[in-house]
Automatic annotation (TrEMBL):
HAMAP family: DHO_dh_type1 (MF_00224). Substrate binds at residues 31, 55-59, 112, 177-178. PROSITE patterns: DHODEHASE_1, DHODEHASE_2. FMN binds at residues 9, 31-32, 112, 150, 202, 228-229, 250-251. It catalyses: (S)-dihydroorotate + A = orotate + AH2; (S)-dihydroorotate + NAD(+) = orotate + NADH + H(+). The keyword Flavoprotein applies. NCBIfam families: PRK07259.1, pyrD_sub1_fam. Pathway: Pyrimidine metabolism; UMP biosynthesis via de novo pathway; orotate from (S)-dihydroorotate (NAD(+) route): step 1/1. Catalyzes the conversion of dihydroorotate to orotate with NAD(+) as electron acceptor. The gene is pyrD. The keyword Cell division does not apply. This is Dihydroorotate dehydrogenase. It is found in: Cytoplasm.
């Protein structure tokens, strides 16, 4: 990767090539694809919240054949590596899908074991270390491509889930997907999204996910891709200090579709201005020596 900035799955598609030069991105990440075409959830699929949004798209997908036939060749015209995100309902299906989309032109697979919309009450593979280990082990056996496990912030101990994914053969972690959420329209007294619950994303989740990246970085030895609420170069730096080697930008693409390109430029300027010759020097460089904290902070 020429820089650590890439889009988050589901917030990016081929049409972005009309708006920004995709060659400038660190990597390209597809919307999660399922084996067969999927309609997704009934609407409304999105609702605004304070400093964020709730989505309940429900993995609308054109299917793996269409991805391999159309999207992979389309993205091949750009220099940036292509990461294909996969979603399935069973561990065996995840493995079969991983094999199916491991075609020339695909550089890595992101295993979306975290999407909260697929199963009742937001449960997913990444809620549980054993389930995570099982599905990542099977995917590991079915592809020779690097695999990234995308974790859910709805799990209690995300760092332990990350460790399970690492032990099962994941090459990197994406921390994280959306937080299970709900909002109600008080005029209609109906949930704001058709699926009743959905995933919260945007700046409102950033401090939660920065904390999870920090905790996970202390536990695992594989790289972490931070994802949650990033809207500026300062947010990128914060994630890197917490332990992220790279970042994904999601909701901000809807606010500012050229934002990723601007952040890449800003990151270069930040590095020059601050005398940083190697941006990876920032990874995990937070000064968290407990002596720096006040007694009050420790009491928390
Ligand atoms: C509209 C929408 C669709 C999404 N679809 C997917 C998806 O298909 N697969 C996935 O792993 N994450 C999906 N996500 C989650 C994002 O990739 C990202 O993890 C999350 O939004 C947090 O990042 P952000 O705060 O920068 O948006 C979606 C998010 C949004 C807002």
């Amino acid at each position: 990767m020429k820089n650590p900035i890439m889009p988050a799955s589901g917030t990016f598609a081929e049409e972005m090539a009309e708006i920004i030069d995709l060659n400038t991105l660190g990597a390209l990440v597809t919307k999660s694809v399922t084996k067969s075409p999927r309609m997704g959830n009934k609407g409304p699929r999105m609702a605004e919240t304070t400093a964020g949004m709730i989505n309940a798209v429900g993995i609308q997908s054109k299917g793996a054949d269409a991805l391999c036939k159309n999207s992979v060749p389309f993205y091949a015209q750009f220099a940036s590596p292509l990461i294909v995100s996969i979603s399935a309902d069973t561990a065996e299906d995840f493995a079969a899908l991983a094999a199916q989309v491991s075609v020339p032109g695909v550089d890595a697979l992101e295993v979306n074991i975290s999407c909260p919309n697929l199963e009742d009450d937001g449960r997913s593979y990444a809620m549980d270390p054993h389930q995570t280990h099982r599905v990542i082990s099977l995917v590991r056996k079915s592809t020779s491509l690097p695999i990234f496990a995308k974790l859910t912030p709805n799990a209690n101990a995300v760092a332990d889930i990350g460790l399970a994914a690492e032990h099962a053969g994941a090459d990197a972690l994406v921390v994280a997907n959306t937080l299970l959420a709900m909002s109600i329209n008080i005029s209609t007294r109906r949930p704001s999204v058709g699926n009743v619950m959905g995933g919260l994303s945007g700046p409102c989740i950033k401090p939660v996910i920065v904390r999870m990246v920090y905790q996970t970085y202390k536990k695992v030895n594989i790289p972490i891709i931070g994802c949650g609420g990033i809207c500026s170069v300062e947010d990128v730096i914060e994630y890197m200090l917490a332990g992220a080697s790279a970042v994904q930008i999601g909701t901000y693409n809807f606010v500012n579709p050229t934002g990723m390109a601007q952040i890449i430029q800003d990151l270069e300027e930040y590095a020059i201005k601050n005398g940083i010759s190697k941006i990876t020097d920032l990874v995990g460089a937070v000064q968290d020596d407990s002596r720096d904290f006040t007694g009050e902070a420790l009491a928390f």
